[in-house]
Amino acid sequence: MNHSNAFSGNRRRFITTAGLAAGTALMAGVVPGCYPVAETPKIWKDMPLTLRFRPYELQLRHVFTLAGSSRTTTPDILTEIEWNGSVGYGEASLPPYLAETQASVSSFLSMLDLGRFHNPLHIENIMDYVDAAAGGNYAAKASVDIALHDLAGKVLGQPWYRMWGLNPADTPSTSFTIGIDTPEVVREKTAEAAAYHILKVKLGRGDDRAMIGAVRAVSSVPLCVDVNQGWTSREEALELCHWLSEQGVVFVEQPMEKSRRDDLAWLTARSPLPIIADEAVQTFDDVLPCHSVYSGINIKLMKCGGLRAARKMIALARALYMKVMIGCMTETSCAVSAASQLSPLVDWADLDGNLLISNDIFDGMTVLDGKVTLPDRPGIGVTPL
Ligand code: MG
Q1: CA atoms within a 13 Å half-sphere pointing along the CA-CB vector of 294
Q2: pTM metric for this prediction
Q3: What's the gap in Å between 60 CA and the centre of ligand 1?
Q4: Rounded to whole angstroms, how far apart are CA atoms 162 and 381?
Q5: Nearest alpha carbon to residue 172 among 351, 303, 331, 298
Q6: Got the DSSP string for 208-223?
Q7: What is the distance in A from the centroid of ligand 1 to the CA of 299?
Q8: Taking burial as the number of CB atoms within 10 A of a residue's CB, which of 54, 192, 282, 344 is the most buried?
Q9: b/e map of 340-365 (b: 16 or more CB within 10 Å)?
């Protein structure tokens, strides 16, 4: 055996490898879509995290009407977590039909001491602590989770969709919501929504066939319908599902009261359209009970506590062969952009909440040609306006 030749062969390979490594290092920081590698040493600074928050009032572009009530604003809390010169942004949107308020979110956030954590990348440890601070408070927890993901992504210099291995080309089209109104107004609003490739039509509070007829008079795009628990007879619900499938509807959201599990399971077993849970699913613990009662679930960050919880819900729903939809509240581009990072994983997206307010204070995800479009920016992809 010729040791000398073996050594020189290894040495040549070593020199070639070293040369390649040096070349790669020189290129670091100029690879398109990557952020400078020089940013990463920040993670070793031993500094405490700082949490700040303030109330904000979202102004709605149009009066928002639900059965028996209407409003022109949505209360909100804006959060920031700062570490070593980087700031992550989050928010809690608080529509009045949910239990949380600006006062409850402020009091929850005041209890937290994020200064005990010195590494923003330890999201699991930090969110375990936040979850254990008190039960409930899911929008408040989401506001911390979103700011933490934004901060960690900024420290690492990458958007979350990339760190999760998702292809930004796989984002779905987002639906745009058409509320219950007179046929004239519905036709007008549908015509204004011509840029969208799927519309969400609210049903269950009046003449459903007239609502769909008014939409179909001016648009032929696929529709989904949200009944908000408005149907009462399961037989009539099934008949409507058959009729809706002939009208180009692709799924039905929360057709009956969530407590009527047997009737909903009966309907799901027979309906030609997938039946999606919304009011019936809030957190991770609600996913398993939805199996065999619904075909899928609608996940919202404000309901479940943020991105960490939403990812777990998606994983469990997929393991149960369920459909997944991601939705939102009326909220700024901050929370909508956070939810958008997950959107390549879902079947349908309803991410129009930032388009419904007139005082957005973030630039983030955009809707281009009806499709959720992710910015190539670190974290959740937002910058303050
Ligand atoms: Mg809904």
Answers
A1: 31
A2: 0.87
A3: 18
A4: 11
A5: 351
A6: HHHHHHHHHHH--S-E
A7: 10
A8: 282
A9: bbbbbbbebbbbbbbbbbeebbbebb
Mean per-residue pLDDT of the chain: 90
Q: Kindly give the distance from the C-alpha atom of residue 123 to the centroid of ligand 1, in angstroms, as a whole number.
A: 29
The β-bridge relationship of strands 223-226 and 383-384 is unpaired
What is the predicted pLDDT for the residue at 232?
96
Question: Radius of gyration of the chain from Cα atoms?
Answer: 24
The Cα–Cα gap between 224 and 203 comes to: 10
66 forms beta bridges with 69
Distance of CA 14 to the CA centre of its chain: 47
Residue showing tokens 């996913």? 287
How far does residue 92's CA lie from ligand 1's centre (Å)? 18
Candidates 286, 348, 293; CA nearest to 323 is 348
Going from the C-alpha of 359 to that of each of 9, 60, 164, 217, 330, the distances in angstroms are: 66, 8, 31, 33, 11
Query: What is the Cα–Cα distance from 308 to 365, expressed in whole angstroms?
Result: 19
199, amino acid identity: L
Q: Kindly give the distance from the C-alpha atom of residue 180 to the centroid of ligand 1, in angstroms, as a whole number.
A: 13
Q: Closest Cα to residue 299, out of 278, 329, 320? A: 278
Please report where in the chains the tokens 């949380």 appear, as a residue. Answer: 100
Q: What is the pLDDT of residues 18-33, one digit of tens each?
A: 444 444 444 444 444 5
Please compute, for residue 322, the number of CA atoms within 13 A of its CA located in the half-sphere on the CB side: 27
Distance of CA 334 from the midpoint of ligand 1 (Å): 21
Q: Determine the Cα–Cα distance for residues 199 and 173; give it in Å rounded to an integer.
A: 10
> What whole-number distance in Å separates Cα of residue 214 and Cα of residue 210?
6
Q: Which parts of the chain sit beneath pLDDT 50?
A: 1-32, 38
End-to-end CA distance of the chain: 70
Q: How many whole angstroms from 382 Cα to the centroid of ligand 1?
A: 26
Q: How far is CA 181 from the centre of its chain?
A: 27
Residues 6+ away with beta carbon under 8 Å from 267: 234, 237, 238, 241, 255, 256, 275
User: Any bridge partners for residue 256, and if so which?
Assistant: 231
Taking CB atoms within 8 Å and a gap of at least 24, the contacts of 176-179 are: 176/200, 176/352, 176/355, 177/201, 177/202, 177/226, 177/350, 177/352, 178/202, 178/215, 179/65
By DSSP bridging, strand 249-253 and strand 223-226 are: parallel
